[in-house]
Amino acid sequence: MEPEPAGGATELLAEAQALLAGRQLAEAEELYSRLIAHGAGPGADHHLATALNDRGHIKYLRVEFAAAMEDYTAAIQCQPGFEVPYYNRGLVLYRLGCFDEAMKDFRKVLELNPQFEDAALSLKQAILDKEEKQKRGY
Q1: Three-state secondary structure along the chain?
Q2: How do residues 81-112 score in pLDDT, each as one tens digit?
Q3: Which of 85, 137, 130, 136 is nearest to 109 (CA)?
């Protein structure tokens, strides 16, 4: 395992998030990867899960769906009560036409956070699109 990143995990995460917000994707990804390589220490699960989720978002923006889903799944494994990676993975699954799997993730989001409006809307849309797909016979 690499030594702890200079400035600590909290500062590194904040810097990576600022880069992501500024659409400096390569630089943000590099910082997230450094934080992920450091791993989780005591109480660091949230930082690690956030870094994995955010790095997954960068991969999603690049339309690297399989890699994004790997990061989202790793974030979920790291912190199962963190609803955002379930939502993000559900979006990828939806875009790939895997409606049942997407609906499962959207339902999990709503179980964890019933006020997550985007998840409720995405679930409704996935249900409608699944029905439309079935009507068309494919």
Answers
A1: CCCCCCCHHHHHHHHHHHHHHCCCHHHHHHHHHHHHHHCCCCCCHHHHHHHHHHHHHHHHHCCCHHHHHHHHHHHHHHCCCCHHHHHHHHHHHHHCCCHHHHHHHHHHHHHHCCCCHHHHHHHHHHHHHHHHHHHHCC
A2: 999 999 999 999 999 999 999 999 999 999 99
A3: 85
CA 77 to CA 6: how far, in whole Å? 26
Q: What is the pLDDT of residues 21-51, one digit of tens each?
A: 999 999 999 999 998 988 755 557 888 999 9
pTM of the model: 0.86
- Contacts of residue 105, defined as CB under 8 A and 6 or more positions apart, other chains included, come to 86, 87, 89, 90, 93
